[in-house]
Design a protein that fits this description.
The chain is an alpha/beta fold and 150 residues long. It has two domains: 113 residues, Rossmann fold (3-Layer(aba) Sandwich), CATH 3.40.50; 29 residues, no CATH class. The protein contains seven helices and eight strands. A four-stranded parallel sheet has the order 2-1-3-4, sandwiched between helices. Strands 5-6 form a two-stranded antiparallel ribbon. The longest helix has 13 residues. It starts with a helix and ends with a helix.
């Protein structure tokens, strides 16, 4: 499969109709092609079409989506943060972190090859090759040992 084919796939938005339409509109503003679905048969058809790269939904539906097809799923709920509002006691509201949400979408919308990060024990050298990462404690011990006359 080519990189172009991966990046041209749609984003499945599995939410109640009004919320799905709002998210699809925001994604379209950023140039992302997406499809809003609100029922299980619709999401089943969308995911089985092999024309989607990832999905957006809420926590209760993540297992359902992954049982249909193992794809990355963005949990919309993690982008809502409680904050105090008004002068009343314990009055809180939820604020949507649209910047963090779009960063996550942009990351997942990239072709897989472009978003591969180094494994935990490696880093990329100047030559573009993976290099073993020196852990901080190793560097500290080495500097202590080098400074000593044995």
């Amino acid at each position: 499969m080519s990189m172009e084919a991966i990046s041209s796939k749609k984003i499945v938005v599995f939410l109640p109709p009004e919320a799905a339409k709002m998210i699809v509109a925001k994604l379209a503003e950023r140039g992302h092609e997406s499809v809003a679905v609100s029922t299980v048969p619709e999401v089943f058809d969308a995911l089985r079409s092999d024309n989607c790269s990832f999905a957006i939904t809420t926590r209760p539906e993540i297992d359902l989506l992954r049982s249909i097809r193992p794809i990355p799923v963005v949990n919309l709920e993690i982008f809502f943060h409680a904050e105090a509002s008004g002068d009343g006691p314990l009055t809180t509201s939820k604020r949507f972190d649209g910047v963090a949400f779009m960063k996550r979408i942009e990351f997942l919308a990239q072709p897989k090859a472009a978003r591969v990060e180094p494994a935990g024990g490696e880093e990329i050298g100047k030559d573009g090759m993976r290099q073993p990462r020196r852990f901080r404690w190793t560097a500290v011990i080495k500097s202590l040992l080098v400074g000593r006359a044995v």
